[in-house]
């Protein structure tokens, strides 16, 4: 008996493939446009990031450096009966700009002096003029003078620490410096940047003749700059 062969599936004559409607075509076009837009946006973002990276590599911005190279403390007396600290402190400071392309405008440089974590004086760092422009790859010398009196209420431990420092003739004084600066690249000048520096100093007492009366002389101290 002959085997029965399977018959091929023949679509019925009444099955008609419907043509895409206008709504369907519009949806597909919208999807293509949206996809093209996002691809274009991603390419633009990548291109901008590459440009920024190339400029960063070329310019290589680096933070400025601050050192306190010398300190003279000719008065640092505390009167417990009036809780008054009398002081006279002069600092010599070097500012270095290590950048090969960037110049730095120092618009404001203000220094705070602290003893035992308590601020006792604030002064402006002496610049040749306001908005001092520091050239690239250069080092400049500035100064800061803290002089006067300030009421400071010390507790028993702080008074004891002051007596110990007075006996050693070396006083731990912290200098906190606040900067408002701008960067210059060619003719372009940036907006304002705020920066800070912290200098932890051990300042020996100096007599009226400028001679250190402590066992150790002042050592040049590098400040930590937060740029």
From TrEMBL:
<dbReference type="GO" id="GO:0005886">
    <property type="term" value="C:plasma membrane"/>
</dbReference>
<keyword id="KW-0812">Transmembrane</keyword>
<feature type="transmembrane region" description="Helical">
    <location>
        <begin position="37"/>
        <end position="59"/>
    </location>
</feature>
<keyword id="KW-1133">Transmembrane helix</keyword>
<dbReference type="InterPro" id="IPR044839">
    <property type="entry name" value="NDR1-like"/>
</dbReference>
<protein>
    <recommendedName>
        <fullName>Late embryogenesis abundant protein LEA-2 subgroup domain-containing protein</fullName>
    </recommendedName>
</protein>
<dbReference type="GO" id="GO:0098542">
    <property type="term" value="P:defense response to other organism"/>
</dbReference>
<keyword id="KW-0472">Membrane</keyword>
